[in-house]
Amino acid sequence: MLAFTIQRVFQSIVVLLVVGLVAFSMFRFVGDPIDNMLGQERTDADIERLRGELGLDQPFVIQYAKFLGKAVQGDFGVSYRQGRPVSSILKERAPATLELAAVSGFLAIFFGVVLGVFTAIRRDGVAANIVLATSLIGVSLPTFLIGILLIYLFAVELGWLPSFGRGDTVKIGGWTTGFLTWSGLQALILPSITLGLYQMTLIMRLVRSEMLEVLRADYIRFARARGLKEKTVNFRHALKNTLVPVITVTGLQLGAIIAFAIITETVFQWPGVGLLFINAIQFVDIPVMAAYLMLISVMFVGINLIVDILYFNIDPRLRVDRSSAEG
User: Residue range 175-198: average pLDDT?
Assistant: First the structure.
């Protein structure tokens, strides 16, 4: 177990270094931040002076090494646009994105598993077929279009929910939350459904597929032949073995929720790190863009590492295969 964990941690570090190198290299081609930071009356001396202050006159390797060294310490430099430390800006924006991702992830996992089990057990029922047909909407339509449709229906036509913003928030220490205000909870509904709908349909279809396969297994037939109740067979035996392969996909989808919140935050003008990243691209704010991509990479790699360790502990076949290989 220890050797497996060390190996995965080492692989994760290598992946982060490669992602950081690729991201930092790409930013050299998105534009020159000097053009946005200095006005029309700038001189060559002003340009050279600002390049020296920002460290843009140094070789790429040195810039990348300094970026990694500071990033490990939580220092991502100063925003070219706002003139403030990037870490402070991320701390202000992170609660909005994390709360949106948490609600979306909960909805996706809960309804995905419940509807997946329901459509597998009642696979010939009318309600199950209606759920499957409706789930095609979440798979087929792009996220931004789903968000626009929800805004038109529930905000414009019905006037039940707000169409943008986060609503009123309450500050608790260094954290701002909308969970404690009515307008904050209302503002969460539409973006969380928009962000979690695709992941929910994906999890639902995966759970249904795995559940149907497990229900056809020999040990399930043997359990029924022993006279066990149908509820015990479905939820104690079938569901437990169904969730083992689902863990991997579900873990990656949680990372995708945070990464792909950019579109949802843009549609609903949600004041999170995704919207911050879009604004940073427009102003060629390289420190903000680099910090965002590194944080997303850390989340993806971290979630993948946790999923691998959980999978290794849950599925005994992996431990047996690894022991046999080492032997």
Answer: 88
